[in-house]
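Contributing new records

If you add data, match the layout below exactly. Sequence lines come first and carry their own label; structure lines follow with theirs. Keep one chain per record. Anything else will be rejected by the validation script.
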Amino acid sequence: MIHNDVLRSVRYMLDISDNKVVEIIKLTGFDVAKADVVSYLKKDEEEGFVHCPDEVMAHFLDGLVIFKRGKDESRPPLPVELPVTNNIILKKLRVAFELKEDDMHAILKAAEFPVSKPELSALFRKFGHTNYRPCGDQLLRNFLKGLTLRVRG
């Protein structure tokens, strides 16, 4: 899924401003200009649209975890995971919103995209594991839709 779509979805879900998106990214120590964020949030066909790079998306997701759960001072910051795949996006959203397996199933069911327990657990396996399964765009899109319904009500 295009990182710009994920960025727009999370921004809408949390009802946050462009400035807040910049603040969330800066929570990880990564510097990004507001003008850049505005260009990432534009629709594909709009003038000034720029694809969101992996590095910015990775820092946004890590910043989102800090924004939602607070910073853990007892641990050193983890290096960002690149390239950012749909599986990584799903994992980071799960951590940020403190979702359990049952929550994930309820969210996908609310989006009318039910997934079995083995299918869901396969998405969170490490790449290269025999049961690893890549997360498709449709699943991630429906997860974001269901999570938005849960968060915004």
